[in-house]
Design a protein that fits this description.
There is one protein chain. This protein has three domains: 24-77, Roll (Membrane-bound Lytic Murein Transglycosylase D, Chain A); 86-219, L,D-transpeptidase catalytic domain-like (Beta Barrel), CATH 2.40.440.10; 223-283, no CATH class. It contains seven helices and 18 strands. It has helices at residues 2-13, 39-46, 50-56, 139-147, 200-209, 248-258, 267-276; strands spanning 19-21, 24-32, 70-78, 86-90, 95-100, 103-109, 112-113, 122-131, 135-136, 155-156, 167-171, 177-179, 190-192, 196-197, 215-219, 223-227, 233-237, 281-283. Helix 1 packs across helix 5. Mean pLDDT is 92; it is low at 2-16.
Length: 286
C-alpha cells in the first residue's frame, strides 16, 4: 500500500511524457508552488534554471513565491544518445535518462559532482542496492573536513542526517552511487563529491524499479542537436562546467553534420546559442 501511494505521488510529480519526435522531449505543464518552495528548489523539480522559469512567467527573480501560485512551464530537452536499453546520465544537463527497446522510458534530474570533485565518466553496471544505508565517509572527504576545520566524521548511520537519504544504488564506477539526499535543494546543481543525488521520491522509485545488473553510462555532452518532426533544426548548449576545454564551434558542426544540416541553419542563431549556453532548446533553422 505504501509503495502504491508513492507510485501515485510519483505520477503526479512526473506526468506522462510528450514527445515532439524521437529525439526531443517536449512537455507543457503548470507547476503549483507548495510550502517551502523557492527558485532553487523548483529548479530540481522541473529541470530548468530558475532565471528562465521566472522570466517566462514575468516574475522577478528574487520575489518570494506564494503557496498555490501557478507557474506555466514549457519543458524541452534534446535526448543526447539513445541506447537500446539501460541508463544514460549526461552531466551538463544533469539528467538521468532510461531507455527500453530503443525508446526513452523516463528521465529524472540529478545533482552531479562539483567542478572541484567531478563525477567520473564511463560505462557502469548497477552492482547492488541498499535501503537505509550507512554512509562510510571516504578518507578524502574526511581530509576535506579536517582541512576546513570541521569535526572529522567517519560514518553516519541511517536517519535524517545521512546525506545518502534512504536509498542507495551502487555503481561499478569506484565509490560512486545514485542515492537520495537530505538536501533536495541541491538537485539540478553541481554539489556532490562525485555521486549523483536524486530527489527522495525518485530515489525510492528507481530503487524499486531498477534491477541489479542494469547497464548504463555517464557522459559529458554539453552540445546537442536534433531534427524535429516538422524538419526544423534545434540545438541545446550548456556551459563547460568541468572545464574540459570544449570547442563549441567544432562540436556544433559535428552534430549538424550528423544530421546533414550544415547548410540548413542560421549561423547567427547558432552563434547566439553558443554565447548564451543557457541549456534551452534553440530553433536555428533558416
Amino acid at each position: 500500500m505504501r509503495y502504491l501511494f508513492h507510485a501515485i505521488l510519483f505520477l503526479l510529480l512526473f506526468p506522462a511524457l510528450l514527445y515532439a519526435d524521437e529525439g526531443i522531449i517536449e512537455k507543457d505543464m503548470t507547476y503549483t508552488v507548495v510550502k517551502g518552495d523557492y527558485g532553487g528548489m523548483i529548479e530540481g523539480k522541473i529541470g530548468l534554471e530558475w532565471s528562465h522559469i521566472a522570466s517566462s512567467n514575468q516574475i522577478k527573480y528574487n520575489v518570494p513565491l506564494e503557496v498555490g501560485q501557478k507557474l506555466n512551464i514549457k519543458f524541452r530537452r534534446i535526448i543526447p544518445v539513445k541506447p537500446d536499453n539501460g541508463i544514460v546520465i549526461n552531466i551538463p544537463d544533469r539528467t538521468l535518462y532510461r531507455f527500453s527497446d530503443g525508446r526513452l522510458k523516463d528521465y529524472y534530474f540529478i545533482a552531479a559532482g562539483k567542478p572541484t570533485w567531478q563525477t567520473p565518466l564511463g560505462e557502469f553496471t548497477i552492482k547492488s542496492k541498499a535501503k537505509d544505508p550507512t554512509w562510510y565517509v571516504p578518507p578524502s572527504i574526511q581530509k576535506e573536513m579536517e582541512d576546513s576545520g570541521k569535526d572529522v566524521i567517519v560514518e553516519i548511520p541511517p536517519g535524517p542526517e545521512n546525506p545518502l537519504g534512504k536509498y542507495w544504488l551502487q555503481l561499478s564506477l569506484e565509490g560512486i552511487g545514485l542515492h537520495g539526499t537530505n538536501a533536495p535543494q541541491s538537485i539540478y546543481k553541481f554539489r556532490s563529491h562525485g555521486c549523483m543525488r536524486l530527489r527522495q521520491e525518485v530515489a525510492e522509485f528507481l530503487f524499486n524499479d531498477v534491477v541489479a545488473g542494469t547497464k548504463g553510462m555517464v557522459i559529458y555532452e554539453p552540445v546537442k542537436a536534433a531534427k524535429t518532426s516538422d524538419n526544423r533544426i534545434v540545438i541545446e548548449v550548456y556551459k563547460d562546467f568541468y572545464k574540459k576545454r570544449i570547442n563549441y564551434d567544432d562540436k556544433i558542426k559535428e552534430k549538424l553534420k550528423e544530421l546533414n544540416a550544415l547548410d540548413r541553419v542560421d549561423w547567427n542563431k547558432v552563434k547566439e546559442a553558443i554565447e548564451k549556453k543557457d541549456g534551452l532548446v534553440w530553433d536555428v533553422s533558416l
